[in-house]
Design goal:
- By secondary structure, the chain is an alpha+beta fold.
- Helices cover 35% and strands 16% of the residues.
- It has seven helices and six strands; from the N terminus they run ααββααααββαββ.
- The chain has a four-stranded antiparallel sheet with strand order 3-4-6-5, with helices on one face. Strands 1-2 form a two-stranded antiparallel ribbon.
- β5 and β6 form a beta hairpin.
- α3 packs antiparallel against α4 and α4 crosses α6.
- The N and C termini lie far apart (44 Å).
Length: 213
């Protein structure tokens, strides 16, 4: 059975630095949070402990019980990136979803700072490069774009044959440009292309890939 966090662990998480997620606590407390995958120990001195994206979510919603197998990654588990291609329509948006998206995005930014060699928060990290569709979807939703769903227009993020690129589509040229702008600001490289959407009709989409430098 999944083991929830204890009250003491939730207090340690709640006391983390609001910007960096740096933790303070006893060795036993911090080690337990690492085991729960809610924290990680930085490999460089002074080897401080920081919240993982899952830990950030616990701080955003401390009343939630967090399983012992809570993921380090910002997508699986309690949070699921919305790509606009879901077979089952996701629940309607609300304040809880807004908090989850914000927590996932802040987790990605912190992961960039901690894992990019130069600590650059404006350039996608290794996790984003191996989860292109989910990472692009998080960036879009965090920027205020809405995913497509039955009866509602929105963005759709899909993989492409290119190893480090995904395609983002919107029904209108304005929507396509807005998605391109949002992804550029999130550190992605974008290029706009045309495609034959239907006989006699041409559509536009953007091809996006993580910026390297």
């Amino acid at each position: 059975m999944a083991k929830p966090t204890t009250a003491a662990q939730r207090r340690v998480i709640a006391a983390a630095d609001p910007v960096t997620g740096r933790l303070s606590g006893t060795d036993a407390q911090l080690t337990a949070l690492v085991r729960l995958q809610l924290a990680f120990r930085h490999p460089r001195p002074p080897h401080a402990y920081f919240l993982t994206p899952a830990g950030h979510r616990v701080r955003e919603e401390p009343e939630r019980a967090v399983p012992e197998t809570a993921p380090v990654e910002p997508v699986p588990g309690v949070f699921a990136a919305r790509t606009g291609t879901e077979d089952t329509p996701p629940p309607e948006d609300g304040p809880a979803r807004t908090r989850e998206v914000r927590g996932a995005w802040l987790g990605l930014v912190e992961m960039r700072r901690m894992t990019n060699p130069d600590g650059d928060r404006d350039r996608p990290c290794a996790w984003e490069r191996t989860h292109l569709v989910q990472a692009a979807a998080i960036a879009l939703e965090a920027a205020g774009r809405a995913p497509a769903r039955p009866g509602r227009d929105g963005y759709r993020v899909t993989p492409t044959p290119q190893p480090e690129a995904v395609a983002v589509r919107e029904p209108t040229p304005e929507g396509v440009r807005a998605c391109a702008t949002a992804l550029e600001r999130a550190g992605w490289q974008v290029s706009e292309h045309s495609e034959r959407a239907a006989p006699g009709a041409a559509g536009r989409y953007v091809l996006v890939s993580p910026r390297r430098g």
